Each structure stands twice: as C-alpha cells, then as structure tokens.
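$ fold --in a.seq
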Amino acid sequence: MTATPGDSVFRFFLVSKVCLGVLGNSVLFLLYTYSSLCRPQLRKPIHIVFMHLTLVNALTLMFQSMPYMISSYGVPCFWDDTTCKAVLYLFRVTRGLSICTTTFLSAFQALTISPAHSRWAWLQSRSTACILLSLLCFWTLNSIMYFFFIINTVESNCNSTVTGLEFSHPYCQAKIGIDKSMSFVPSIVTGDDLFLVLMHSTSLYMVTLLYCHCRRARHLHSPSLASQLAPESRATHTILLLVSCFVFFYCTNNIVTVYSLYTPEKLSKSKAVTVMLSSGYPTLCPLLLIKNNRMVARGTTFLSLR
C-alpha cells in the first residue's frame, strides 16, 4: 500500500512525539532516581511521585503509540486476541495510573502549602508516609478494574471489520455492546470523573492560597514574606501547569473519541487526531517539569558539562 502525504506527515509527527516523550520522561526518571539515591540533600518526598509519574507516562506513550507506529509503515495486521488484550491492558493501566498520579500530585502539593491552622493540617504530617501506600493502591485499583474490561471487550480485528458501536485501532478493536461491556464502562467513567473533580478542587484550592499569600505580602510590603513560599510557589505553579495540560488533552481527546465512536464512517479521519491528543500530556509533562524545576535544571546542566 502506497503511503499518502498525510500518512507520511502523521508518521513523522507521531515518531517525533513518541521519541521526545519517552526520552524526556526517561531522563527525568533517572535524574529523580539519582537525586533520591545519591544526593540525599536534594531528596524530597514529592520526588517519589514525580518518579512514578514520569515512569507511567513513558510506558503509556510506548503501549499507546506502538501499534500506530508499526501500522504507519504498512505492516499488515498480525496481532492475535492475546496480543491485543495484553497491549491494550497495559496501556489502559498506565493511562489510569497517570490520571491517579497527577491527581495525587495536585492533592499532595495542596497539603504541602496549606497553612498550619487550616482544616487540612492534620493530613500534612501523614501525607508523606502515605505516598508509597497510595501508589500501590493506584496500581491495584487500575490493574483489577481494567482486567475485566479488556478481557470482555478487546479482540483482534485482523479477520473482521469495524461495524456499529466499536472503537478500533490498527490491529485491535473494543466492542461496546450491552452484553459485554456496559457493566464496566460506567465504573471506569465514574472513576475518571472523580479523579478529575478532585484534581480541579485541589488546583482551585492552591490558586486561592497563592492569591491570598501574594495579596498579604503586597499589603504588608514585606519582601521576606513574599519570598517565604518561593520554592513551594514554583513547585505549585509547575503542578498547576501539569493539571491544566492534563485537563485540556483529556477533555479534548474524550470529545474526539466519542465523536469517532458514534460516527464509524469517519473513524479513519479522526484516528490520527485521537492518537496525537492522547499522547499530548505524557509528551509535554517532562518538558514542563524540566522548564520549571531547579533540581532538574541543575542536573541537566551538570550532565551537559561532563
């Protein structure tokens, strides 16, 4: 099959995006690991969450983009049902972990900058001790939830065509039918929505705290008060950028996905848009962290001078 100019452009942007995203997340993961193990003076509890986020983002990019990259080079369908279930299961689990970790990151930072007299003060001392337990719970929750959904809905489309209410990608398809998946879809959507609401709530709380702190500093004309939360303020701004980026790509991707789901004759046209949107957050996440994190900037400067 001869590739059209549109296919070539899509392949170029997809490969570039995946390489940039995987490389950026991998470099950040190694830098955070190095600082945690070899530079204890730079170690912070939140670095564990950043390490987990960069890891699941890199895995999400690989499992989500791999079939599109292979098919863009004209490789015919060769995946069986087992391969489809395994790859899509790993993609959905890592994508769910990305949602959970971003939400936890926002909540953790909101607790960190909360005043000592706030109603959430009792959680501040416990938040650090709960990091590993929370991440383990996220892995368990997503692994169990998506296992039953993938097993009951995903199959290879090598010997079939996409018809009706189905979502497809190059080698696999997920049939959305009353008999198989409608009992799982509401729980998945509800879970994502709950994390999204929590993400919004903690972000608004952080914005309110930063606004009140800046207004109090201007009112008192106190440079020391203005710089008191400088490090935490930078970290908070970074996390707010991550949350805004995630919400934009998540909502836009869902709109395009629903559109393609109910208009199967336009699925091929919207497929490229869907895959680029779904890989947008994992790709931009390391760039935002590198740009706004002093520890990462020092690490990259050190490595460039070696």
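$ fold --in b.seq
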Amino acid sequence: MRAVLQKVVQASVTVNNKVVGEIGRGVCVLVGISNDNTRDDMEYIAKKIIGIRVFDDAEGNMWKKSTHDLGLEILCVSQFTLYGKTNKGSKPDFHDAMKSDRSRQFFDDFVERLGQLYDRSKIATGEFGAMMQVSLVNDGPVTLELDSRKFAYEKPGPALAAKLAAKAAAKEQRRNRFGQKTNAKELDTSGD
C-alpha cells in the first residue's frame, strides 16, 4: 500500500461541483492499493497516518506531535495512480493497482480501520471511483511518501542475484566494446 500524506491547514474533495469531503487542520492522504496488498499493509499505513509526527508541539518544536496527539482531521482519497509505472513509453501502466471491484472494499475497510484506531468522526473521504477535484492548503509544505513494503523487501535470492550479475556483466561488455571501438577510431585517424 502506498500513501502520500500532506500536512494541511484545510482540504476538500469536490465531485460534480459538490463538496463530498472536507477537513480543517490535519492531513490529506492519497491512498493507493496494489494487487497483493493484505490487511498487514492496511494496518501499517493506518498506524503510520495517525501516528506520524508532522506537527509542532505547544512550544513550537517541530516534528513532535501526530494527528492523533492533537485530535486533528484526516481526509483520505483513493488514488490508484500511485501504482502507475512510467518506465516504458509515454502511457502510464496501472497493472499493479488493485482492480476497482476489490479495491473499493479494501479502501472502505481501510477507512473503517482508521476509524477504529482513531476517531471515525474526524475522517472524511472522497468518492471512490469518481473524477475528483482535491483542493488543499499545504502547511509547511510537508509532504511524505509512505509505502507498506518499502522497508520490508527481503534480500534478493540466488535467482535474482544471478540475474543482476548477468546484467552487470553484459553492461561491462558493452562498455568494453565501446572503448575498443573508440580506441580503433583513434588509431585510424592518428596516421593522417
């Protein structure tokens, strides 16, 4: 699961010129769900959102208080495009995003879990699957990327290690061939 969390003075979501969710001071969170996300991913992101310290304390010390500590609001907006790949061609690839029939329930369960961990009355959402306009006033600005799998990746096994070694060897061979061609050209032109 991925989330982009922004510390805000205010935020709102509009669908068809109607505000469907809005908050005052708190965090606006764009939430992406991948094909293989589980309740463990949901739990990690939910706890991170309510517990991450992005607010000042009463003395003005930065990074001391969380949304939970201060009783602030949360606006959650589903955003499958957080799983878009842009490494090939000019059209984003969204195959890693969970399909809408499953992700709608997953997102609803996620919001419910946030409410269980915090206070459901302080959580607003957009409208799942709709074309939404998200407006916000970022405070700071503070924007953080959260990823439930970012630090859980295991070391590559033997198959992946062999594949990476083969790629590195092929790259080195190309580099050597290019160097040989450059040297050959220099030799050819040195006699003129």
